[in-house]
Amino acid sequence: MNDNQILQCNLAAFGSCTKYGPDGKLGDAFYKSVKLFKSKIMKHVNPTGAIDDNVRSAIHDMISNLNPFKLKCKCGECEGFGHGSMLDQYRDGKPHIEAYCQYEYPYISHMTIGAAAGIIAMYPDETWEISSGYRCHIDNKQHGRTSTNHMGKAIDLRPVSIPFNNRAEYCDNIRNELVSLSTFQDGWSESNKLALEPSRIAPTWVHLDCRQFDHKWIIETARV
Known about the structure:
Blueprint: H1 3-10, H2 28-40, H3 53-64, H4 110-122, E1 128-132, H5 137-143, E2 154-159, H6 164-180, E3 184-186, E4 194-196, E5 206-209, H7 215-221
Parallel strand pairs: 3-4
Antiparallel strand pairs: 1-2, 2-5, 4-5
Helix pairs in contact: 1-4
């Protein structure tokens, strides 16, 4: 990725990758995302789309708060991000879309990492735990799963300081706010937009993924 693509990925939670993906072209969507970042994270009252050293430093700090070690697969057999197996393979009898793509991407997409870091930064009073990062085929087998979302596309965040009985309502409120900002979608109906797993699937945590993005963008951004 070039520097512009990295910036787009880092600001994914604020709408920088919407519609076109992280193409490196810093157009209207990107500058709107800078404004939203300044408003939400830097607390600017009348933010502009301009980027200076202070903004770059704030973006760096936001991304640095996400511990890469906690993103690693817990299977105990891969080195943390699968074995790169099943390139261009999909589940038998299923459409050739990311929901059924069997490929173990070599890292979690930086779009997803940027989105997770953005959510953590937007809700700083909460203590967030990465409850699921990467999960390779071996880890799936160990737990009887078939989903491939976590093979480079998804991260789950759990608000651990919220009492369990209040957690579902809290996560619903967060999903609703993120959707209202037009940077995320609830479910997977739109192309090239970050997705939140609906509450019926993820009641007490926030699952986010980039599986609705074109395959080329996931390949491009799921690199160490």
